[in-house]
């Protein structure tokens, strides 16, 4: 199925939803949100999908909500706009399959809330996460405050939301906003080349030579594009690698683990404990529990059927 604002594909049990509004740096408006929701419904209906990867472009996962659409919004319209974003994030959070956000480039506002609703997040040196909403006179509207609190704790969540800092990939990883931080040697070399090209462009601008400026700008754009593409591909490749590892695990156990952990994180630890006991007990009525334990006793590789 083709969409106007996203690219959706399924390969070997891995579904990918790629945000695709390049001119707007994947800013989230009503139309792209509708496409994302429709794609998520396809994921729900496709029993062959074992893992979902959500990603953006080389420059941006998503540069926040589309301000042009929201600037003159009434409280009623803002509630409707946020309502769909909340539904999307709640669905990402509650899907029984694992969800992975491959976050390259800017991940701002609503474009930061969506990855936080996923189970896992992958980023790199060019990844930058931020909640800039307070500087616009609002706050995150798709439960970003709540999810940031669950991941970071209240003090760090307040720092992120109220002071609106830009969090680069390495720091995001240290804070726990990212599960994996990837930086390949090839990408590092390309980043160095882009840095050198940027310095050359500055030098050309100082010279005032229009021809030199044009050539330096062209060289810089090419170097920057190559570096960004390398990082995007490295981040996405890591997400696929994680997805394949998850697909080796029995689907019922993954779904139960996700349900128990979410219950504790979203509601209370006590509720999570009760959910964990329920999930643990019910798994003893699955084929894969019998197969997994038999395989361990027989010292062989288990053959899971995900039932």
Provide structural commentary.
The model has no long low-confidence stretch (mean pLDDT 95). The longest helix has 38 residues. The chain folds into two domains: 177 residues, 2-enoyl-CoA Hydratase, Chain A, domain 1; 47 residues, no CATH class. It has a six-stranded mixed sheet, with helices on both faces. Strands 4-6-8-9 form a four-stranded mixed sheet. The chain is of the alpha/beta class and 307 residues long. The protein is globular, with a radius of gyration of 22 Å.
Structure at a glance:
The protein is of the alpha/beta class and 307 residues long. Helix content is 57%, strand content 13%. It has two domains: 6-182, 2-enoyl-CoA Hydratase, Chain A, domain 1, CATH 3.90.226; 251-297, no CATH class.
* CATH topology description of the largest domain: 2-enoyl-CoA Hydratase, Chain A, domain 1
CATH superfamily of the largest domain: 2-enoyl-CoA Hydratase, Chain A, domain 1
What is the rounded Rg? 22 Å
CATH class of the largest domain: Alpha Beta
Q: What's the overall geometry?
A: globular
- Would you report the number of β strands? 10
Write out the strand line-up for the largest beta sheet, numbering strands in chain order. Answer: 1-2-3-5-7-10
Order of helices and strands: EEHEEHHEEHEEHHEHEHHHHH
Please report which band the strand proportion falls in: under 5%, 5-15%, 15-25%, 25-35%, 35-45% or over 45%.
5-15%
Poorly predicted regions are none
If classified by CATH, what would the architecture of the largest domain be? Alpha-Beta Complex
Helical element count?
12
What's the number of domains?
Answer: 2
Coarse structural class: alpha/beta
| Helical residue percent band | 55-70%
Distance between the termini: 28 Å
**Average of pLDDT:** 95
Main sheet? 6 strands, mixed
């Amino acid at each position: 199925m083709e969409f106007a604002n996203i690219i959706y594909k399924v390969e070997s049990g891995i579904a990918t939803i790629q945000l695709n509004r390049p001119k707007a740096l994947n800013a989230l408006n009503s139309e792209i949100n509708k496409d994302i929701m429709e794609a998520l419904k396809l994921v729900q209906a496709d029993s062959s999908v074992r893992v979902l990867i959500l990603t953006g472009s080389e420059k941006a996962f998503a540069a926040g909500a589309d301000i042009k659409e929201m600037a003159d919004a009434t409280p009623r319209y803002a509630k409707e706009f946020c309502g769909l974003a909340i539904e999307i994030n709640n669905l990402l959070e509650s899907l029984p399959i694992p969800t992975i956000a491959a976050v390259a480039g800017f991940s701002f506002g609503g474009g930061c809330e969506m990855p936080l609703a996923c189970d896992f997040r992958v980023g790199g040196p060019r990844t930058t996460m931020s909640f800039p909403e307070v500087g616009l006179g609002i706050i995150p509207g798709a439960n970003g405050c709540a999810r940031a609190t669950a991941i970071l704790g209240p003090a760090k969540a307040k720092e992120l939301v109220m002071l609106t800092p830009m969090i680069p990939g390495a720091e995001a990883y240290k804070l726990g906003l990212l599960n994996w931080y990837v930086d390949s040697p090839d990408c590092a070399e390309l980043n160095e080349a882009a840095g050198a090209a940027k310095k050359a462009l500055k030098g050309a601008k100082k010279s005032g030579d229009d021809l030199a400026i044009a050539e330096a700008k062209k060289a810089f754009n090419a170097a920057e594009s190559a570096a960004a593409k390398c990082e995007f591909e490295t981040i996405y490749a890591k997400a696929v690698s994680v997805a394949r590892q998850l697909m080796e695990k029995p689907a019922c156990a993954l779904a139960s683990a996700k349900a128990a952990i979410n219950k504790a994180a979203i509601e209370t630890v006590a509720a999570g404990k009760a959910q964990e006991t329920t999930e643990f007990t019910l798994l003893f009525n699955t084929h894969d529990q019998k197969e997994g334990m038999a395989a361990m006793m027989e010292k062989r590789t288990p053959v899971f059927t995900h039932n």
